[in-house]
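Fill in residues.
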């Protein structure tokens, strides 16, 4: 069993890790992290064909939200936030907005992160009353500096993006933007290691 695999660390408990082990792991991190946009794109495509009762499927909704923001002149980072805002629908059935926010957090402004994280509560204004909930749940954030930004997001881009007859730019159109936004993290636990 002394068949050493060159590109893998050898510890069984992390406490046994050596500088050589961590050189191997750190060396593998860069190429893997660079492929993050590919994994995001692949995951977005999982939303295709999944309507969940809505008038359009979840990918179409995400693309239309991004299309509306783009056509309205929003900047690239904002458009990418719009594109990904519901990417958590597959894994975060009970907290989808948090999933998107966590993915975007290292790469976007605090304002855009807050907007994505809270969009579900703000969006609830349009339907919480039909589910026995308080449609004004968002009012708890009335004095928050990102209240207006998030209100605008749901009103102008998220809520209207269920129009099967409306414009939907393809994922390929947004791909270069996504790659640019995800090129370099602004903040990360591993910042020092990534950016020595
Ligand atoms: Fe959402
Ligand atoms: Fe949405």
């Amino acid at each position: 069993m002394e068949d050493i695999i060159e590109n893998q660390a050898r510890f069984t408990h992390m406490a046994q890790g050596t500088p050589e082990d961590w050189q191997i792991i750190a060396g593998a991190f860069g190429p893997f992290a660079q492929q993050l946009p590919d994994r995001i794109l692949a995951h977005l495509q999982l939303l295709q064909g999944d309507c969940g009762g809505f008038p359009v499927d979840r990918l179409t909704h995400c693309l239309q939200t991004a299309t509306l923001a783009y056509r309205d002149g929003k900047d690239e980072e904002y458009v990418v936030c719009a594109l990904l805002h519901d990417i958590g629908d597959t894994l975060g059935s009970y907290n989808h907005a948090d999933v998107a926010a966590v993915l975007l957090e290292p790469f976007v402004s605090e304002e855009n992160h807050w907007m994505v994280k809270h969009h579900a509560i703000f969006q609830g204004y349009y339907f919480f009353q039909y589910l026995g909930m308080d449609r004004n749940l968002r009012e708890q954030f009335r004095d928050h500096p990102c209240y207006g930004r998030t209100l605008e997001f749901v009103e102008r881009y998220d809520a209207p993006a269920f129009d099967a007859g409306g414009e939907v730019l393809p994922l390929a159109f947004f791909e270069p933007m996504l790659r640019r936004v995800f090129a370099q993290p602004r903040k990360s636990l591993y910042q020092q290691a990534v950016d020595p």
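Residues 19-34 form the longest helix (16 residues).
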